[in-house]
Each structure stands twice: as structure tokens, then as C-alpha cells.
Amino acid sequence: MKNTKRYITNKITLGSLMVMVVLLLSGCATKVEVSGNFPKPIFHQIPLSVGVFYPELFSQYTYQEANEDRSDRTIGIGTAQVQLFRTILPSIFKNVVPVASAKSPNPAQPIDLVLTMAVDDFQYTVPSETRIDMYEVWIKYNLQLFDPQGQLIADWILTAYGKSPTAMMKSEGAAINEAMIVALRDAGAGFAMSFDKVPEIRQWLQRRAGTQI
Amino acid sequence: MIKTLRTAMQAGVILLLTLVQGCTTVTIDQSRLVQGKGSELAAGKSIVVVGRRSGSEYETEPDLVSCIGKVLNNGQTQVRVIPEDVFIDKLYPWFEPRTAPVKVADLFRLLEYEELSKAITDFDMQYLVWVDGSTQTVSKSGQITCALGVTGISCFGFGTWDKKADYEATIWDYSKRKMVGKINGTADGTSYMPAIVIPIPIIAPVQDDVCKAIGLQLRSFFKVDPEQQPAAQNNTM
Questions:
Q1: What are phi and psi of B124, to 5 degrees?
Q2: Are A125 and A163 in contact (CB under 8 A)?
């Protein structure tokens, strides 16, 4: 009887310790695979047929926290950012074709340009670091535009920012996901607004318009 | 003895409830830039409530915006309120933090885009209400310690924190192409967390209270309920 009682007490202690360990571990590591929906933009469609190449480093981009002073966080962005561009590009260009490479696209149908992109930098902050009740993320994209022969036409930077307020019962993962969706929407807005304002692209469009006249 | 204990417990519960209900102070100020029936909501027209998200150190909470919409829609007379996410998604990318119109003139400049103009017209919107502000924790004190024992985790201590909500609702009349009014709502509240074995949070619903106050004031502003008298007021909730 005494042994049974001690056995139960040990079991309870062990159980409590395990719960504590699990709670502590879950409090330290955050893994987020960013997911959400992106709306189709309302935009003046540019009369271009554009091939799009998503490099593997872009389509599978995952940020892994390397700083030992920060908690262990893994943020998977690749799938969501491909989803964003797949949604917005057909509203911005008349025709969008996936291609196998940026410099030798070999498209199934004629194209005017090839667009490709890379994540140049990704940063985030959490409320404990900034003393404001928000999760913030910054993404710096490097976009490149080639002609169908693989000649570089434009190379430019697109930055995006997103933030999400903290809330009771909202997990860190959910807050980072929200901030990421805001940042990706911002990237989409920035791309749509700035595409034909990039000097090299503007010049190319003007030359093309001149040739067509 | 039992009777005394029961009376003491009842007094404790009443005191607890008093604390919960008595800790939020809400102040509402309204400025109306049109007179008479100038701000009445026309039959069949809708209202859109959208949060401003351009502040660098705060974020107008989507929950607050959606709460104001619910209060605006909840009364004797039904008001058609377009949910913020539906409106912003439909008009993407023109109402994002970096692209949203800051002045009334900016909105009407955007309408030069035919497709955008058509999308806004489809909402049948009369008023666009911009909500800007946030709820912040302004101070914290107290300490709660938790320990792991044989029977599990037990806590002891007392914590308290003060929250301040500060919002401004700016009302644009889409049909008249001008700003017709502003409503400022502030709320202060203190929350408590006594912990005897388990922590018991007694939360001051600062954000909820300011949301209700702004929502009701907006109903009054749009003269949705005929019996309501619109006026600047101070409420203690």
C-alpha cells in the first residue's frame, strides 16, 4: 500500500516535471510556416507577356534564427511569397507564363520579359526587444528583369514591412504570421505601384512604345 | 458562524464585481462639421469602418475596428456596415498602410481609376470612418511567483496593470466628398491579478468599453436612432 502511494506520488511529480519541461520548451522555440490569402489587385494591366522564374532559394525560403541571444525561431516564407506573386502578377501583366530559368527561359509561348526575384534580407523584432506591443517584420527583395535572350534590363530593390499587435490568447506564431501577411501584402502593393516607375523599366517601355509606333 | 461566513463571501463577491465594473473611465468628444440633417445616413446606404495602420509605434487593432462595426450595426435600426477586411481586400492594393488615402482629396484622386471607382460604387458606401489609435499598457506593478510542488504548480502574489485606450474616428462623407466629423474616445482602466494557488485575472475591458462608446456615438452622429440626442459627452462605465 505504502509502495503504491509512493509510486503514484512519483508519477505525479514526473508528470508535473514533464508538463513544465514541455511548457518551457514550447515557450522558447517558435516555428511558423506563413500562410494566408492574398487578394487580386485592382490595377491597370500592363500589356506585356511576362515569364516568371521562382528560384528554389526563393520558393523555399526559410528564416532560421542564428543569433544565440534570441529565442529559436524558424519562419517559412517561401510558399506564401510564391502564392502572393502568383496572385498579383496576372492582374498586373496581360499574360504571365512560368519559365524554367531567368537567363534561358525557353517559354511555351512568346514572352516580352522574364521576371525573377530573391530575398536579400529578412528581419523581425518581438515586443520584448522593442518595448512596444507589436511584432514587426521587414523583407528586402531583389528583383531582376531580363529580355527573352537573357540580357539584364533592370535590377532593383523592393522593401516590405508588416506589423501585428500583441493580444491576449494570441500565440507568438500567430502574431508573426499576421505581421508576415501584412508585409507580403505590402510587397505586392509596392511591386504593383513601382514596377513601371523603375527608371530602367520605364526607359525600356518607352523604347518599346517607340519601336511599335 | 456559517451565516457570517456566507455574508462575508457575498460581500467579497460584490466587492470583486465592483472592482471589475468600476475600473474603466471612458471619455467621448465629438466634433460635427455639418449641421442639421447633414450627417444622416440615407436609407440603404452603407458605412465602412477602417483602421489606420500608418503609425510607426502602434497599430490600430483589427478587433477594435470590427467591434465598432458590430456596435454600429447593433440597435433598433439596422445599419449596413461593410467589414474592414472585405473592403480592403476588394480594393487591394489601394487601402494598404502605405497606399491608403490620408486626405479626402487623395481618395477622390484615386477614383480616376475607373475599376477602383466602380469597386467602391458597388459597396454603395455613404460614409467611410477611419479609426486611428491603440490600447497600451501604461504601467505595471506587483509580483506573482509560481512554484512546482508535488501536486502541481501553485502561485502566490498580486499583480496590477493600467491600460489606456486612445482612438480618433474621422468621418468622410463619400457622397459629399468631404470630412464631416470626428469622434475622440479615450478610456483608462486598471486590471488586477490576485494569485492564491491559481491566478485570477480581473480584467478592465478598456478596449471593449471605448469601442462601445465610439460605436454608440457614431450611431448618434449618423442619426440612426431617432430618439438619440447627439452630443459630446463624458461617460464613466
A1: 55, 45
A2: no
- Residue at B153: amino acid letter: I
Of A146, A153, A143, A129, nearest to A187 by C-alpha is A143
Q: Say yes or no: A108 contacts chain B, CB-CB below 8 A.
A: no
Residue A43 — φ and ψ, nearest 5°? -155, 155
Where exactly are the structural domains of chain B? 24-225
Enter the C-alpha cell of residue B98.
502605405
A83-105: b (≥16 Cβ within 10 Å) or e: bbbebbbbbbbebbbebeebeeb
B158/chain A closest Cα distance in angstroms: 19
What is d(CA A210, CA A213) in angstroms, rounded to the nearest whole number? 5
CATH number of the structural domain B24-225: 3.40.50
Chain B residue with minimum CA distance to A160: B98
What is the DSSP track for B164-226?
EEEEEEEEEETTTTEEEEEEEEEEEEEEEEEEEEEE--B---HHHHHHHHHHHHHHHHTT-ST
- Please list the residues that pair with B141 across neighbouring strands: B160
pLDDT at B40 over 90: no
What chain A holds in terms of domains, given with CATH numbers, is 30-212 (3.40.50.10610)
What does each C-alpha distance from A4 to A12, A88, B150 come to in angstroms? 12, 66, 16
**B82-112 pLDDT tens trace:** 999 999 999 999 999 989 999 999 998 988 8
Interchain pair B153, A44: CB under 8 A = no
Nine-digit cell at B15? 466587492
| DSSP character at residue B102 | S
